[in-house]
Amino acid sequence: MTRRFALMIDPVTASEERVDFGDTFTMVDAAAPALSVGELSTQRGDGVFESIGVIDGHAQEVVPHLERLAHSARLCDLPVPNQEQWRQAIQVAAAECGDGEAVIKLILSRGVEHGPTPTAWVTAAPAADFSTARVGGVRVVTLDRGYDLGAAERAPWLLLGAKTLSYAVNMAALREAHRRDADDAIFLSSDGFVLEAPTASLILRLGDRFVTPVPNGGILHGTTQLSVYEYLAARGFEVGYDRVAASVLPTADAAWLVSSVRLAAPITAVDGVSLPVDAALTAELNAYLLSPRD
Ligand code: PLP
Questions:
Q1: Which atom of ligand 1 lies closest to the CA of 170?
Q2: Distance 114 CA to ligand 1 centre (A)
Q3: Would you say 90 and 62 are in contact if contact means Cβ atoms under 8 Å apart?
Q4: 187 in a domain, yes or no?
Q5: Domains in the chain, number
Q6: How close is the Cα of 116 to the center of ligand 1, in Å?
Q7: How much is the pTM?
Q8: CA nearest 9: which of 79, 76, 77?
C-alpha cells in the first residue's frame, strides 16, 4: 500500500549535468501546507503537470512522460525541465510506492508571483480503483470542445497541446457527462472531428485497423496510446493517426479510453448508442499495460 508522499524540487537548468541531484530535493509532509499563497499554479493554473502510473513500485513510461512535460513547458514558456533531475525525483517517489497501483504526479508551476524561479514538486499517492471501468467499460457522450482543428496552429496561446494545470474545463465536461447519465465524455472539434476525452486518449478499432485522432497540437499525445500501439503493432495489427470524423465514432468495431492510471476502458455506448466491446482484447491490453514498461 502506498502512503502519500511529496518531494519539492529545486529546479536546475536543462543542461546541468550531475550524477546525483539528491541535494535539490526536499521531502515534505504530504498532509501539511507546502505552497505559498502567491503561488501561480493555484492562482491561475499557470503550470504544467504529468500523471504517471506506478505498478508495484515501478513507474511506467517515464521517458515519454518526461518528454511530454518538456514539450508542455516549452509551449508555456516555462524553463525546460532537467530530464535527469526529474527522473531521479521520480525514482525517489517510486521507491515510496508499495505493492499495487499508485500514481506519481509531476508539477512544474510558474512559481510565486514576481518570484525568481518556478516551483516544482512530485507527489505519490494510491491510485483510484479503475477495475470496474477496465472490465465493465464506460458510456460516453460527445461534447463540443468549442474550437476547430486549425485552432492550435492559429492561436498557440491557447496552449492546446500542453498538459497545463488548467483542468477546470475538463472537469466541467466530466460533470456534464454525468448529468447526461454517462461516465465520461469525448470532445469534438467545432468542425466535427473527434479529439480526446477530458482525461484520456481515444482509440478506435475499424476492422483490423486501429486509429486515434492525430495529436497535431489540438490534443495531447497520450503515453498510454503509444504503449497500446506498440503492443498492437507487435501483434501484427495496423495502427495509425487520422482525422476522425464524429460520424465514424458510432460505427467503430470497438473503442477505448486509455490513460496512464485508468489504463484501457472499453467504450460501451456513445450518446446512448451501444458499441461492440472486445472483452478478450481489452483484458489483453490491460494485462500488457499492467506489466512493467519503460
Ligand atoms: N488527453 C488528456 C486531456 C489527458 O488528460 C490525458 C491524461 O491525463 C490523456 C489524453 C492520456 O495521456 P496519458 O496516456 O499519457 O495518461
A1: 3
A2: 31
A3: yes
A4: yes
A5: 2
A6: 30
A7: 0.97
A8: 79
